[in-house]
Amino acid sequence: MLPELKITQLRHFVWVAELKGFHAAAEKAHRTQPAISLSIRDLENKLGESLFEKRNAKTAKTELTPFGRYFLPKAKELIAHHDRVAEDMTLLAEHKTGHLRIASVPSIATRILPELLLQFVADAPDLHISFFDGNSDAVIKMVESQEVDFGLASLFHEEEHTDKSFTPIWDDQIGVVCPLDHPIADQKEIHWEELRQHRLIGNGTSRILEGTEASPLLGLSQFYISNMISLIAMLEAGFGITTLPWYAVPKDNQKLTFVPLSSPKVIRHIGIVQMNNKSLSPPAEALVEFIKQHSQDHRD
């Protein structure tokens, strides 16, 4: 049966060998000299060989046996490996290292996450992050397939996702986005029926209107554009108007304006989506808690 070597005993052995004495090693270990002697004796019993020559009364130095000289680099190697593993696990538990994978809807990815992630990684320079964006369906699929640790999305039809948990974080009001020179641009809010007379462009978030009083608008859209960059370009060119959640509107855009939809008032709830039966890694758990604590309304 192989001996079970204790890291503490290995440290004591290395200190005695390097400091050339049990007394010096005892001071370094903050232990008594008899305690160090007992530790070394137990290690020698496990190994079946003496590590140090019998002490010469004429000298205070402690010398290694041939077996001890052979074992010294091995002991140092074991200690170094132990310390590396212990450090890695400590850093991982403190979310300062490891690999974090998250997915988010584009609106949160562009409007909120940059600032949050910058703060989060400030004290974790060795933490690797893979980030994916997509619509809510795509984000949820990545969570289901475990491509990501968790997602930031809207969870439509929650009754169909009993295997997931959803923690709402942001409330995102639906409104109309149009060019600054559009007839409705100066209104403080707008009723959905007023939109019938204007050319509508559908997009990936339009289905938020399903089941609301404004659902007839879904059948009135003459065009559908799924890509947000293309959608914004068409809106800026005066091609039409569209409904969008507030966070999906590019911040500080100089050509477009957002008019809240007042009737009906539709709110999109965006939050953290994760699988019920899967534990998060320490970095992912830390980021989830960070988001909960630091998220606030960015509509300023």
TrEMBL record:
InterPro entries associated with the record: HTH-type_LysR_regulators (IPR050950), LysR_HTH_N (IPR000847), LysR_subst-bd (IPR005119), WH-like_DNA-bd_sf (IPR036388), WH_DNA-bd_sf (IPR036390)
UniProt GO MF annotations: DNA binding; DNA-binding transcription factor activity
Entry keyword Transcription regulation: yes
Keywords: DNA-binding, Transcription, Transcription regulation
Cellular component aspect of the GO annotation: cytosol
Entry annotated with the keyword Transcription: yes
Domain of life: Bacteria
Domain HTH lysR-type: 5-62
Protein family per UniProt: Belongs to the LysR transcriptional regulatory family.
UniProt-recorded name of the protein: LysR family transcriptional regulator
Source species: Oceanospirillum sediminis
Organism phylogeny: Bacteria, Pseudomonadati, Pseudomonadota, Gammaproteobacteria, Oceanospirillales
